[in-house]
Amino acid sequence: MTTTQTQTQTYRGNCHCGAYVYEAKLPEITSAHECNCSICRKKGYLWVFVGESDDFRAVKGTDDELTSYSFGSGKMFHKFCPKCATPLMGVFPDGPPGKQRGLNVHAIQGLNTWKLERKMFDGAAMGNKYVPHEYKGSLPAAVAGKQLYTGSCHCGKVRVALMSKPLDDSYDDRIVECNCSICERNGCRWVYPPVAAVVLAGDDADIGRYSFARHIMSKTFCRTCGVCMTNERNALLADDAISERDGPFKAWAETYRPVNLRVLDNVDLSGLRPAQMNDGANSLPPPYENP
């Protein structure tokens, strides 16, 4: 009797800043698991699982250098880069064979995640129901015809308030998913309100900020759980350090403050019109180089 062995190939993945790089031997990735639990929703995870322990190796960095976040039973550890917040993987030491390390395919190089088959998993029905954190912080000014929305990272240390048109099937402003190097990895779904319509709340020590390339904007995230919150003008970059070519981008960054829809409470993402797919990987300079 002969046994057919599943063919594998070596995939390479990394956080955005390149501090952590790995290789994994996996069957060809044509599908991924999409879970609707509280943290998977906020991080936009798409999962594949590594089989044997020797099918995965860190090429640069170590697991211990990543930030670990756990909740609930405390048996699963979500690993993300403390500098750029890329959500890389989940480690489940007590999990069944072949399910002890899940990789977020958004961080794997060369994959078109928009074309992957998505296998839905109802994680929201498991364990205790997630209770959204109470918003604490200042509020944007009320505007006629608009509603107040609040939300938070998963652990609740970083919160956001948004004054917006109703976020339902009537919403007609831009909703975007982008495949640029950072938005792909963070799994964000963006809306683009004016700066005055957004408040990011929390202790500054709990808020991470990551900028790269032209450094005009910073992605904000929670240092504890790693959830990406907003995009904001990088306050550390002086005006005279911005080139004339980047002047329009600076003006845009001072006008709008994108918010990740995934972090907002009481917003049904499936009830909104489909997101516009923005090919930022090929349209936003400079091109990103995978490590």
Q: What does this molecule look like?
A:
The chain is mainly beta and 291 residues long. It has four helices and 20 strands. The chain has helices at 38-43, 181-186, 247-253, 280-283; strands at residues 9-14, 21-26, 31-35, 47-50, 56-60, 67-69, 77-80, 87-91, 101-104, 117-121, 147-152, 159-164, 175-178, 190-191, 198-201, 207-210, 217-222, 228-233, 259-260, 276-278. The chain has a five-stranded antiparallel β-sheet with strand order 4-9-8-7-6, with no helix packed on it. Strands 19-14-13-20 form a four-stranded mixed β-sheet, with no helix packed on it. The protein has a three-stranded antiparallel β-sheet with strand order 1-2-5, with no helix packed on it. The N and C termini lie far apart (43 Å). 35% of the residues are buried. The mean pLDDT is 95.
How much is the average pLDDT? 95
Order of helices and strands: EEEHEEEEEEEEEEHEEEEEHEEH
SS-derived structural category:
mainly beta
Largest sheet: number of strands, sense, barrel closure: 5 strands, antiparallel
Low-confidence runs (pLDDT<50, min 5 residues)? none
List the helices and strands and how they pair.
Blueprint: E1 9-14, E2 21-26, E3 31-35, H1 38-43, E4 47-50, E5 56-60, E6 67-69, E7 77-80, E8 87-91, E9 101-104, E10 117-121, E11 147-152, E12 159-164, E13 175-178, H2 181-186, E14 190-191, E15 198-201, E16 207-210, E17 217-222, E18 228-233, H3 247-253, E19 259-260, E20 276-278, H4 280-283
Parallel strand pairs: 3-10, 13-20
Antiparallel strand pairs: 1-2, 2-5, 4-9, 6-7, 7-8, 8-9, 11-12, 12-15, 13-14, 14-19, 16-17, 17-18
